[in-house]
Specification:
Layout: H1 2-22, H2 28-42, H3 44-59, H4 61-70, H5 75-89, H6 98-116, E1 139-140, E2 144-145, H7 151-168, H8 183-208, H9 213-245
Helix pairs in contact: 1-2, 1-6, 2-9, 3-6, 3-9, 4-5, 7-8, 7-9
């Protein structure tokens, strides 16, 4: 995939080296954090759309369950009713997926950059206007070697992953849904969400403990940034609802 390497991996690698060059003390950890934040800021509008759609779909779940009861023997009627509901509520069931499709290639490219970024041979990919540092010192704060696995960074990534996942998961079925025919499905979904709440952080730790510390630091930064973004988006949505009810 030459185009992927040329259009995404090489520019991101150059940005990483640029940050590394201008940071006093040439701290690769700080360079990784700055690069990750910059990319997440660029992707902020896409992620905002995804988060708002996820929240909106959760909020109209009681209405969806009512439709399932009303049209329990009419699949075609249920499909039409749900499309009408999405139209009235201005919610797209696909809106939460599309932003992720936009982000995914960029995040994969960043992953590839960090995976090979400490190799001196990679410096041959630098643009003429990016100073070549000669070598890259893979340390963060002077003592954390980001070129080798670091269990502590992996554990920190897992902890933040837990809080991020918990904020996005739903608990018990809403009161409006409890006692309806769809409550069983909702309870099963809540149980699956609870399993993911612990499964995802565990996977993050297991994978992070085997990869170079630079990737674990990247994942910590991504997760913290995403957590902050979720808080901001959900608070904005809550304020918007409060204003509409006044």
């Amino acid at each position: 995939m030459g185009w992927f390497h040329t259009l995404l991996i090489v520019p991101i690698f150059n940005l990483l080296v640029f940050f590394y060059d201008i940071i006093p003390g040439k701290d690769m950890g700080v360079a990784i954090i700055l690069l990750t934040i910059l990319i997440k800021l660029i992707l902020w509008p896409f992620m905002n759309s995804s988060l708002k759609s996820q929240k909106a779909l959760q909020e109209i779940q009681p209405k969806i369950e009512e439709l399932k009861v009303t049209h329990k023997d009419d699949k075609e009627g249920l499909a039409k009713a749900m499309m009408e509901l999405y139209k009235v509520e201005k919610v797209s069931p696909f809106a939460s997926c599309l932003p992720m499709l936009v982000q995914f290639p960029i995040l994969i490219a960043l992953y590839r950059v960090l995976l090979q970024g400490f190799d001196p041979s990679a410096l041959g990919q630098l643009y003429p206007f990016i100073p070549n540092p000669g070598t890259i010192e893979p340390h963060f704060l002077g003592f954390l070697n980001l070129g080798v696995p670091n269990i502590w960074l992996a554990l920190i990534a897992g902890v933040f992953q837990f809080f991020q996942t918990r904020m996005l998961t739903t608990g018990k079925p809403p009161k409006q849904v409890q006692g309806t025919a769809g409550a069983k499905d909702e309870t099963m979904l809540a149980s699956m969400n609870k399993s993911m709440l612990y499964f995802m952080p565990a996977v993050t730790v297991l994978i992070g403990a085997r990869l170079p510390g630079g990737l674990a630091l990247y994942w910590v930064t991504v997760t913290v940034f995403s957590l902050v973004q979720q808080i901001v988006v959900f608070k904005q949505k809550q304020r918007s609802k409060e204003v509409k009810t006044i």
